[in-house]
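mind reviewing this fold:
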Amino acid sequence: MFGSGAQGQSILQTIIPLLLMFAIFYFLLIRPQQKKAKDHRIMLDALKKGDSVVTAGGIHGKVTSVDDSVVTLEVATGVNIKVNKGHVSAISK
């Protein structure tokens, strides 16, 4: 009789801190990362010809064409490079 009550409380005492740790990780790490990824996807979907962008490597250029997975950037007059769409990190002004 006494053993089962102590075991129930012991299990409860080990599960509650684990749940609290998961909740903290979710709100401080997982949720903000998912929001940032969603915002990046929205930004990539909104890319259009004429936008000035910055790549993850720090290259600044003007979008000359957008395909499903490739963006062509003009980095100097007459100099075009192709970059994977996912590597565009920001739209600059």
